[in-house]
Design a protein that fits this description.
By secondary structure, the chain is α+β, with helices and mostly antiparallel strands. Helix content is 50%, strand content 15%. It has helices spanning 7-34, 40-52, 74-81, 87-91, 97-107, 110-121, 241-277, 289-317, 323-353, 359-366, 376-391; strands at 127-130, 148-152, 155-166, 173-179, 190-196, 202-207, 219-230, 234-235, 279-280, 283-284. A four-stranded mixed beta sheet has the order 1-4-5-8, covered by helices on one side. β2 (148-152) and β3 (155-166) form a beta hairpin. α1 packs antiparallel against α2 (40-52), α7 (241-277) runs parallel beside α9 and α9 runs antiparallel to α11.
Length: 395
């Protein structure tokens, strides 16, 4: 591996950081002070500024107004965008749209590309990936999917119950995972379907309340009741839903790691600045070993997390599935981010737990990072199986 970041990528990452610091963070702080949630008008204003600065859709082709960056090149760019929770939304690299654009770019046919991907890439629409189900359906084990799609002439009829579908409040279309062949192996029996929001049979039941402040787009619970879709709504091929999901979720796990590293890095900067200016027990907090060690541990762990992200991105760029490497990165970075934010709140004391700083909100939001896109326990299972496979037979 060559750890050198190309000069033009450094320049882009620097411009993204400046944009987030100068344009996005002031909006973030104003929302924090006012208690107002991000709304469509505020987001569209930020997106217009990002487009004007030519900092739009890092992973999308330049002919669609994007930046045309590959999986390795986006690592520092996504981290820079992730310095604010609004940053990825502003430059159009936030979940789930970023992962859905990756999925559609790889598997959508020409008609689907024109109808769904092109407007999504331009920021004209929003999307949602509808796979997770409430018990007894699929959660950490996607083989437990209960949603069924049954052939009816030239169409498919879908019935099922999903929840925690991110962006569900605003999505213009849904990518739905459903079982199409219950007699097949679970990895060959599921299919993904594209469904416009206004299709009869899609009923949004509620936005599921989650830890921390409300997320833009929500995490909805949905009932699919006799949802009729044509065969042309299938994304990729029938029975290949799991394969498509893996092609989406592997890189998506890594992009979560990139964005959250940006938040953790900014938290470390906030805590360090606070500690340098806060006098207690005869000197600044930065002069006390207990605080120094928290700062040092945070810096070291963030560096380790970046290296794991870089290796996994490099392997994906070589055409590998990198399932073990993305699992290792997901577990370690999600837990590193939690520890860094915990230390930063502790260092800042009363201000850390107040809403005067964004730390407490990030602290609450970061807890779910260890659950979504594969719980830490599931990724540890993936790593353990690889260890047993390589060493368990006495190799």
């Amino acid at each position: 591996m060559d750890f050198t970041i190309p000069r033009h990528i450094k320049a882009i990452a620097h411009r993204v950081r400046q944009f987030v610091d100068d344009e996005v963070i002031p909006v973030e702080l104003e929302l924090l002070r006012s208690g107002i949630d991000l709304n469509h008008d505020i987001l569209q204003d930020l997106r217009a500024r990002a487009k004007a600065a030519q900092l739009w859709a890092p992973t999308m082709p330049k002919e669609w107004g994007g930046m045309g960056l590959n999986i390795q090149e986006i690592v520092p760019v996504f981290e820079a965008a992730g310095r604010s929770m609004l940053g990825p939304l502003a430059i159009h690299c936030a979940a789930p749209d970023e992962g859905n654009m990756h999925l559609l770019r790889n598997w959508a046919n020409e008609a689907q590309t024109e109808r769904y991907l092109a407007p999504l890439a331009k920021g004209e629409t929003f999307s949602a990936f509808s796979m997770t189900e409430p018990p007894p359906g699929a959660g950490s084990d996607p083989r437990m999917i209960q949603t069924r799609a049954v052939r009816n002439g030239a169409d498919w009829i879908i019935n099922g119950h999903k929840w925690l579908t991110t962006n569900g409040e605003i999505a213009d279309f849904f990518i739905i995972m459903a079982v199409t062949d219950p007699d097949a192996h679970p990895y060959q029996g599921c299919t993904q379907f594209l469904a416009p929001r206004d299709t009869p049979g899609i009923k949004i039941l509620r936005d599921v309340p989650v830890m921390g402040a409300k997320d833009f787009g929500g995490h909805v619970e949905i009932q699919y009741k006799d949802l009729r879709l044509p065969n042309s709504a299938i994304l990729g091929e029938a029975g290949r839903g799991f394969m498509l999901a893996q092609s989406r979720l592997g890189p998506a796990r890594l992009t979560h790691c990139m964005r959250w590293t940006g938040i953790a890095q900014r938290a470390l900067e906030i805590a360090t600045d606070y500690a340098a200016g806060r006098e207690a027990f005869g000197g600044p907090l930065t002069g006390h070993q207990s605080v120094q060690w928290m700062l040092a541990d945070s810096e070291m762990e963030l560096k380790m997390g970046r290296l794991l992200i870089q290796e996994a991105a490099w392997r994906l760029a070589q055409g590998e599935q990198a399932r073990v490497e993305t699992s290792i990165a997901k577990v370690q970075v999600s837990e590193i981010v939690g520890r860094v934010l915990d230390r930063c709140v502790q260092i800042c004391g009363g201000r850390g737990i107040s809403r005067d700083l964004p730390l407490s909100g990030w602290y609450e939001k970061a807890r779910s990072f260890r659950i979504y896109d594969g719980a830490s326990e599931v990724h540890r299972m993936v790593v353990a199986r690889d260890v047993v496979k390589r060493y368990g037979a006495g190799e």
